[in-house]
Amino acid sequence: MQMHLRIVILIYNLLLPLALVLMLPGYLIKMLRRGSYGRGFGERLGIYSARKREIIGKLERPVWIHAVSVGEVNIARKLVAALRDIDGGLPIVISTTTPTGFSIANQSDADLAIYNPVDLWPISRRALKVINPRALVLVEAEVWPNLVKGARRNGVEVSLVNARLSSKSERQYRRFRFFAAPVFSMLTRVCVQEKEDVRRWRELGVADDAIMHLGSIKYDSQGVDEPAETSDFREMMARFLDGDSRRILLAGSTHPGEEGMIGKVYCRLREQFPDLYFMIVPRHVERLEQVVADLRAIGLNPGLRSKMDSCGGGNAGDYDCLIIDTTGELGAWYYVVDIVVIGKSFLAHGGQNPVEAVFAGKPVFFGPNMENFAALVDLFAEHGCGMQVSDEKELEKRLLLELDSTGNEQTMVDRAKEAMSLHRGAAQRSAKVLLGH
């Protein structure tokens, strides 16, 4: 197995620089288009500012948690809270890949947030030397061979928590098992979300005694509280709506084309429900100009959340929908609105996480393309939640029924929360395993 692993790592290290060169133009375009992608560039090379080196120097062998983007960082935040409950003085570093993920990680209870180093062996080795972790914790699917191998060489336990393995990923890993199995075999432990995942990870090379079924941290409602910003957002909307009692339909984490599609549904619904108001939270705020253009093309005049402050910025009389063009607020807005439609599930593939909206106690609908959340969709279906719709037409029909009823919404909410109860306590269980309790 060791010889097999060395061959795989050698091939990986020969191919990775070429892959990075091919990806570089796309990365540069993102830097130019989104701006924020250029931040922390040095950290991606394992080079840290004097301030961050000073902070790291004061941390005695921290737990290093890597979470690639927003969803994984939110999981990491729950895990950090659970670790702090057990050991309040535990030093913790969170690394992430995206600017939005970094922004959220920076607001967590971790001691430090950094950008994850590129997985070239000199860079990962430098980062491991600077951070000197006591444990490396990877969230969901971020298994970087050089980082993992370097950590294990230094005697550091490497854990994969909330391990996610979609049907598509499993097929891909099986196809390239020669390369995947040796890498996965380096993991100290794999904490899986579902019982059926145990078999999948075993067949991909992970030892039986290293696989643990602990439930999903993402779906764990324990310790989930209404965000502090919610009361401010309610006051903001009360001013914006001029004190009117309005029901709010929110389209969250939308991708290209979905703002216009759901917007057309809203336009038809408000003919029957004049009190209905529409809010949109694009998954990538950098698309703002196109989102505004798409909404105007269907006859809507959108306002911007960034213009809403204590000084005013217009009201619903000026704008017939509102775009949330500020980042990191979606979880709090779920508590303010009345009905939620999840994006990336109609005109894009993979889906987005609907659980935050469920925790907020709101009726939730999503489209047919929820491949990344297949197990969760099945769980909701088993509990009769009726959240998934096949297309725009069915979405309109279901929204109409929800708006025209006073009882169905709570039934959906109660059933969804009952389904989520299966994962309650997953963060605490994971934290105890990581700390050997």
Give a description of the structure:
The structure is a single chain. The protein is α/β, with parallel strands linked by helices. 46% of the residues lie in helices and 14% in strands. The two termini are 31 Å apart. The model has no long low-confidence stretch (mean pLDDT 90).
Short description:
The chain is of the alpha/beta class. The protein has helices spanning 2-34, 50-58, 70-86, 99-105, 121-131, 145-153, 167-175, 177-184, 196-203, 230-240, 258-272, 288-297, 330-336, 355-359, 374-382, 392-403, 408-420, 426-434, and strands at 63-66, 92-96, 112-115, 135-139, 157-163, 189-192, 211-213, 247-254, 276-282, 302-304, 321-323, 339-342, 364-366. Helix 3 packs parallel to helix 4 (99-105), helix 3 packs across helix 18 (426-434) and helix 10 (230-240) packs across helix 13.
Span from first to last CA? 31 Å
The CATH fourth-level homologous superfamily of the largest domain: 3-Deoxy-D-manno-octulosonic-acid transferase, N-terminal domain
Q: Segments where pLDDT lies below 50 for 5+ residues?
A: none
For the record, the CATH class of the largest domain is Alpha Beta
**Strand order of the biggest β-sheet:** 3-2-1-4-5-6-7
Q: Structural class, from helix and strand content?
A: alpha/beta
What is the gyration radius calculated from CA atoms? 23 Å
Number of domains: 2
Provide the residue-averaged pLDDT: 90
